[in-house]
Amino acid sequence: MTDERRAALRKAAETEDGKLILNGKALAACIEDELRERVDRIVSLTGRTPVLATVIVGNDPASVTYVNMKGKACRRIGLEPRKIALPAETTTDGLLGVIDSLNEDRDVCGILLQHPVPKHIDEPACFNAISPEKDVDGVSALSFGKVSLGEDGFSSATPGGIIRVLKEYGIGIAGKEAVVIGRSRILGRPLALLLLRENATVTVTHRKTRDLPEVVRRADIVAACVGEPELIKADWIKEGAVLIDAGYNPGNVGDIDMKNAALKASAYTPVPGGVGPMTICTLMEQTVSAAEKLFGVPAER
Hints:
Layout: H1 3-13, E1 20-21, H2 24-46, E2 51-57, H3 61-77, E3 80-86, H4 92-104, E4 108-113, H5 123-129, H6 141-148, H7 157-168, E5 177-181, H8 188-197, E6 201-205, H9 212-217, E7 221-224, E8 242-245, H10 258-261, E9 267-268, H11 275-294
Parallel strand pairs: 1-9, 2-3, 2-4, 5-6, 5-7, 7-8, 8-9
């Protein structure tokens, strides 16, 4: 993103009282413009259109909605979405067979296994079966390990999107005290590691944490990742804190009581329109990067 566009994005985010609304939807739109140019270049140089394959098992309504949203994002930037819909009774071995075939498909540059899968399926085994070069959602243990050690790998999409939001809006991370509320394998834990890579001092909280409000009160950056509506109260928030709400609950309600907590914050992500669009955008960006590498197209400097 150009410095001029970044400056315009930040200016548009400022409120009259000097706060920043960290608009992920606007940022994602800017990034998609650049991704569209990169995809056009891949197609022009190779004559091939990169494919993002999404595997969905069963017909969970929320998962179906998410898959459709990702398909639309692919089309906006020129990727070809390929949806593989499997019945709910699919076995672990059956799903592993599908993933293996996608690993071998030369046109498929990214593989996304929509979470969650039915309980009888060994989800970690299926995540780990995805080729690291195509694990654009950053869900395998190998990708997690590489990112945590600072090696070349794909980050989990939502945590990667959160870090991008903070950086593009000029929110300093180094030296800040960050509290991550939630420790899921695809959100809380990888986000904590990415914050640590950016030199934040990180505390991860969970159901066994003692005196959660007091822990949150010392945070410069609060990242809520639990999926419990308005769990985080306004009186838990330190004046001037940055609030990242990665929770989504029915009725467009996040994990933070943002209506009141935002009054104390210096910057915050809205729900919806904050973290969600950047999750999909990060998935698209990592798919384009995978395509450039797999198709032998060097990224433009």
